[in-house]
Amino acid sequence: EKGGHEYFMLKEIAEQPQAIADTLLGRLTDSGEIMLDEVRLSDQDLRDVDKVFIVACGTAYHSGLVAKYAIEHWTRIPCEVELASEFRYRDPVLDRSTLVVAISQSGETMDTLMALRHAKAQKARVLAICNTNGSTIPRESDAVLYTHGGPEIAVASTKAFLTQLVACYLIGLHLAQVRGNLYADEAGAIVEQLLKVPDKIRELLAGIDPVRQLARDLKAAPTVLFIGRHVGYPVALEGALKLKELAYMHAEGFAAGELKHGPIALIDQGTPVVCVVPSPAGRGMLHDKIVSNIQEVRARGARTIVIAEEGDTAVLPYADHVIYVPRTPTLLAPLMTTIPLQVFACEIAAARGHDVDQPRNLAKSVTVE
Ligand code: F6R
After folding, report:
1. Which residues fall within 8 angstroms of residue 313, CB to CB, at 6 or more apart?
2. Disulfide: which of 18, 160, 223, 350 matches 250 by Cβ 3.0-4.6 Å?
3. Rounded Cα distance, 286 and 49, in Å
4. CA-CA distances (angstroms) from residue 293 to 37, 129, 257, 283, 364?
5. Among 105, 136, 140, 364, which is best to mutate for testing ligand 1, by the most ligand atoms less than 8 A from CB?
């Protein structure tokens, strides 16, 4: 049943290329048009949207944080992301031109369900991104885009997260096309890159053994810190969450720019810091900025574990360990950079003797508030 893998989690990590391919299947035309007819929101509805709110919990929330960068960049519609448990109780400003996107693997998470009910009561339109056919969240939403990840058995979410990202990219591209923000050739270029992701992940997974070794070496670390910028920031949060829930270790993710505002004081001799580095080919100064953050933490004694794009040699002088991932455009990079962090957490947990698939105190679907 685990298909030759030691744990369901490893099996599900290995299934990510297929899960992504399945989530893209039938939703793209050759000319790069996104076809989301199943979403049941008319083009006019989508043109009327003037604000997007993404609500979710845990890992699904992290996918929403990534989506914000893509949706705002492609559509120019303001997009906010909020923990469902907070959204519900703070009287958010919503109306019929607000699109609320509720992201949930199980479709049964109580906090997310309550957030969507609240949004509907305020007349917002609710679109669910969900992995479970016929579950409560999609049934109560105005529209749904299913992720085709297949059943996820391990408590820690892996393939569901990557397919949530893909669904968010599709929604962002679709909104942009319908509203005329993005030209067909630009969208086509992004779609072309999305279609290449499954093979790139296969390539990445084929070379993943050094990450497992490194994880075993670090199993006794008292804390592990994760830093990133832009879409690498939610990836850092996700890497830390995986480590907490599976290895029961203290771990924290930070926006790299925030280090000097406090967290850098945590760094001691040998503290492992996982640094998620964007493509050097990306926009702006992002890459150089994080390279200097890596330099800063290393100067204070950190043991730096750098996740960077193939061919990025600028990180080498400051990296104690480098994990290269295949090249992909900046906004899509979380589809690559998350994977070593999943494997890392799984392997540390196993090395510490924990049940990787059934971590203590956690349930696969959280149906209480
Ligand atoms: C972490 C994890 C949880 C879920 C969260 C939301 O690995 O699995 O953080 O992401 O409980 O669950 P869903 O997506 O089912 O609403």
Report:
1. none
2. 223
3. 30
4. 44, 35, 8, 18, 36
5. 105
> 85 CB under 6 A from ligand 1?
no
Token pair for 92? 């958010």
| Rounded distance from Cα 186 to ligand 1 centre (Å) | 33
User: Closest ligand 1 atom, CA of 366?
Assistant: 11
Q: Say if ligand 1 is within 6 A of residue 366 CB.
A: yes
Task: Quote the ligand 1 centre to 148 CA distance (angstroms).
Answer: 16
- Does the complex come out with an ipTM higher than 0.95? yes
343 lines ligand 1 (CB under 6 A): no
pTM given for the model: 0.96
Active site residues: 364
Per-residue pLDDT of the chain (369 residues; tens, 9 = 90+): 898 999 999 999 999 999 999 999 988 876 667 777 777 788 899 999 999 999 999 999 999 999 999 999 999 999 999 999 999 899 999 999 999 999 999 999 999 999 999 999 999 999 999 999 999 999 999 999 999 999 999 989 999 999 999 999 999 999 998 888 877 678 888 999 999 999 999 999 999 999 999 999 999 999 999 999 999 999 999 999 999 999 999 999 999 999 999 999 999 999 999 999 999 987 678 999 999 999 999 999 999 999 999 999 999 999 999 999 999 999 999 999 999 999 999 999 999 999 998 888 888 888 888
Decide: 9 in ligand 1 pocket, CB within 6 A.
Answer: no
Q: Edge-to-edge, what's the strand order for the sheet holding 223-228?
A: 250-255, 223-228, 272-276, 303-309, 321-325
Cβ-Cβ contacts under 8 Å for 330 (sequence gap 6 or more): 230, 231, 278, 279, 282, 283, 286
Residue nearest atom 10 of ligand 1, based on CA coordinates: 59
Q: Which ligand 1 atom minimizes the distance to the CA of 137? A: 16
